[in-house]
Amino acid sequence: MTPPLNDTDLAVADDDPMLDLDAPLEPAEPAGGTLAPLHDLSLFGKIPVTLTLEVASTEICLRELMEVDTHSVIVLDKLAGEPLDVKVNGTLFAKAEVVVMNGNYGLRILELSDSDLSDLAR
After folding, report:
1. What are the boundaries of each domain within the chain?
2. How far is CA 64 from CA 56, 61, 68, 70, 76, in A?
3. Domain 37-120, CATH homologous superfamily name and number
């Protein structure tokens, strides 16, 4: 086992022209000689994400919001029957319609968005 470095050792290492401490790190090559695939997503299959169905939205001023009561109607920006937005962690994932299956609501996916999985990881 090597002893820990002290401040003097670090200062000497920092001045060593053979050590480029600002160089980007490269992945180490495994013993078999090939790199593991960077996009193996099977490890992420059980990570929970938040799936949200967004019916519509609108912008109103705070004064209008303060005047809302139990009989108020707020007009939204989507027409009835239009596909709804399905979002994963806040990023658009698909367009869908609501269905009922065995007494539960469900989603029938109509169209997938063009975003890839890296967009959903934000």
Report:
1. 37-120
2. 18, 5, 7, 14, 14
3. SpoA-like (2.30.330.10)
